[in-house]
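Task card 7
Instruction: Convert sequence to structure tokens.
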Amino acid sequence: MSHSTPSSSDATASPTLAAVSEQLATTVEQAARSVVAVHARDRLASTGVHWRDGLIVTTAATVRRDTNISVTVPSGTRHGATLVGRDQACDVAVLRLEGDVRLPPAALGDPAHLRPGHLVLAVARLDDSGPRVAFGAVSSVSGAWRSWKGGEYSRLLQSGLTLYPGFGGTPLVDAAGRVHGLNSGGLSRHFATTIPTPDVERLLSQLLATGYVPRGWLGVAMQAVRFPDADTRRAMGRDGGLLVVGLADGGPAARSGMLVGDILLAMDGGEVHEPGDVLDALERTAPGRTVAFTLLRGGTRVTQSVLVGERPQSTGRSRRRSA
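Output:
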């Protein structure tokens, strides 16, 4: 009876895979030291990351109450936490640990260094039984974008990770144990989407300062339209603009004298063609500032100044094209 002998490639493959496996297990162990379970909704806990100085970051969608919040730390003990603030548009919430709880902060990485194909992990904690892990690879990295909720992000970072129940708020961890952001299951239906570390830092600072993220608001609903006749297109030097289809009662645009039926052409000198153009400009405009709109009203080009208000906290941007 003959016995086959492993080839040299087979002999080296097993130790190499074992070494990679051992390294990943060590990476999980290290990253899990800064990962907690967040008890801020009924039944299932979610995950949070100790970012710094007793501050826990998690996804806003998993924080369903403002009080009676607690976290389970890596030692298995449970401690109270207070809600510092949340931003539903960007899906980030910040909690502050109560009492003298010592946890190492997460080792933060720079997501600009990630490329499609890099191995990544999602490290979760749901109770006192230890960490849980999902394994995958970066699937897409691109530039700045806005989610359907209206949140603005410095880059689009998606992976093939499976975010199991309770994995909302997990850190995106690279093979070296560095955290590149916060995983959210509510920003895309098809891929795990990560809120990049610089955006978490920005939102954390804003929530610490005010408890929420103030955003500019006009109180106007709009849709792109094309001018029906060639004469108007020639006179305007463009094919169309943004038709005002609705105004919030008492909102900034309505108070300024803007009318339903106006066609927006430019905002502070920058042409607007899609609702996203106004939303992008508004994201960079602080409440309390006056902006000038160029618009077409009854066939005449006019200028309308609007004092930008602050978006009501209960409103939030949605799929509707409103600003």
